[in-house]
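Handout, section B. The chain below has 192 residues.
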Amino acid sequence: MINYPIIRKSMQTKTVSTSNRGMDLEAAINETNEYYINNDIAYIYKKPIPIQVVKVDYERRSAARISEAYYKVPSTTDYNGIYQGKYIDFEAKETKTKTAFPMKNIHEHQVKHLENIIRHGGIGFVIVAFTALNKIFLLEAHYVIDYYQRSESGRKSITYQEFATYGYEIKESYAKRIDYLKIIDQLYFQGK
């Protein structure tokens, strides 16, 4: 006979909701990229942002704190690397809206960068998380470029429905949390 301890109400643990599990998109992509690297699948990294440190406060020698810094140049996109001999470059964004992704979240220099990537034979895209809906989509760069050009003439967003129609939903999983290469395989490497 096994005697289990009596659990008092004050000792019970709360159940944690998994409805927004993994919606910190950058952390989820970083974990996925680490899985890809550790398993020799692809080498894709988060790009470091070049900053110019202007002022450092030294409270004590072991606790230096940067108190003022500036971006040296506008960053291009968040991630780049190589997969199956192809250069990959992409931006990752989150939006709290349920109906659309605002085009103001993509900057002109990022669009030009993605244009250059695809013009030179690389693979470019954006990954957008609709956090309120717990949905993540990959949208190819040529759609982003087209929507951006239309935004200059009045179009201000890409609707959720357009992501659902032209994009590819990425389902979260355990080991490869945001397995975007599964979609890249379908788009670029199927039949090879």
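Note. The helical segments are 25-38, 108-119, 141-151, 160-166, 181-189. Compare this with the example in section A.
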